[in-house]
Amino acid sequence: MLARYLGGFLHPTIHSGYGIEFGLPGLLAEGISQAAVQPAEGKDLFPSSLFEADAADLTSATGIAAKLAFMVVSSTAGPQATIGMGPHALKILASIAEDPVFSPEQIGLPVPEGEKESSLERVVRKCGKQVLDLTSEWTVPPTQDAIEKKFHEVIWMNVLIYAVGGWAGREQSEDENKEFNGDFFL
Amino acid sequence: MHLVTSALLVSSILRSLNTGTAILLLRTYFTISLVLYIARGRPPLPISEFYEVTTAVPNPPSTEVSTAPDTLPSAANPNPWMPIIQTTLVHPNEHLCKTQRALVHFDALFGGWQAGSISELGTGLKGAGILDGTLFIRAAGLTANRLGWMREGQKQRDWDRKGFV
Prior knowledge:
The complex is a heterodimer of chains A (186) and B (165). In chain A, 60% of the residues lie in helices and 0% in strands. With 186 residues, chain A is mainly alpha-helical. Chain A starts with a helix and ends in an 18-residue tail after the last helix. Chain B has seven helices and no strands. In chain B, helix 1 packs across helix 5 (94-110). The longest helix of chain B is centred in the first third of the chain and has 21 residues, at 19-39. The chains are: A mainly alpha (186), B mainly alpha (165). The interface between A and B is large, with 91 and 80 residues.
């Protein structure tokens, strides 16, 4: 279900998120319903170990203690707040941006016409394991404060990808101005 | 664009989950974001060039004003978010408003971050040391230009769908 919730280019997540933000139970129900009928693309990104590991870590005293020791308590909300909380999201992004394993040529993108596999499924099939090897290093200490601070890293990462990536790929834009490739999906 | 809009919504969702579930969602959302980046063609990320060429004060098509004496400087466009929000409110594209709303919110959170806030050495991402809080207004300006300043007379345009391959 998690794969379905994050599938469809994140639409179940987005729709249910609006429901939560504006206190509209109907929207939340629609978002979850969409998740229920969404194909579970890229299932290999969600191994069962992901669910078992988190449950075990949170219920074992050793797991919690280890994570708390790992965390630096910061009283500021500033940019340095995630020091000591493991690698920054941009560090993982940098690895992905540079490694030829994740290049379109290596993966075989775009998917040739006539083939039924989606680009996401192809990426997961060809290099899903390598992606998980990298992203498994990005951990989140189990406190509300840490969740918020580590989430902020993802905000920066996603805007960076959309804006800087979109600007870098401006020649591929369908717009005659060629100023910005405002990708619908990124 | 959905990486940007979804980030705003994930923020609300995380606050409504217990710690363990929130961490699970956050880590998988992080993973799927990177997979989508790869799937769309993994465009390069030339941060330095981006900052050199794009503007932190995007202007609407016209900034003509007729100011009285003693009006303070930079009167043509003192807050670049204002014209962007105005034009977005009446643009028919339903994804544009979601995107600009997300970007202006992120600007409210991080707009004050100075260059050097994110470590280039620590992340290994070339140009990361240049990243500052103007990232969001730069993105908003490019987005407004791409979809067209319709209120100001430009023709309606749409998102790109071909990706980066």
